[in-house]
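Why does residue order matter? Because the sequence determines the fold. Keep that principle in mind as you read this record.
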Amino acid sequence: MFGMLKSMLGGSNEALSEALRNGATIIDVRSPGEYAGGHVAGSKNIPLQQIPDALGKLPTSKPIVFCCASGGRSGQATDFANSKGYTAVNGGPWTTVNRAVAELQEEGK
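Structure:
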């Protein structure tokens, strides 16, 4: 059950950091209005209901980090992407992903 909750609400920080180090595409699955209220710089906004159609346009050569407000919707997107053969990580809340990106940028300085 704990594994299912982690998948739904955000994976490990280690998996998130590794995906980001490997050049992950960051996809925010919230609505455009939510995204406009704040998002990870450089992320793409693809609302959850559009993921099935949009996934085929994303590169399979690098991981995908999905994020949203709490980790629930991004968990659904992650499970779907992984079932289609993508390497996807549930980053959980966009603020968590934003913090992880900032930490990696600090490491690179």
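The radius of gyration is 13 Å.
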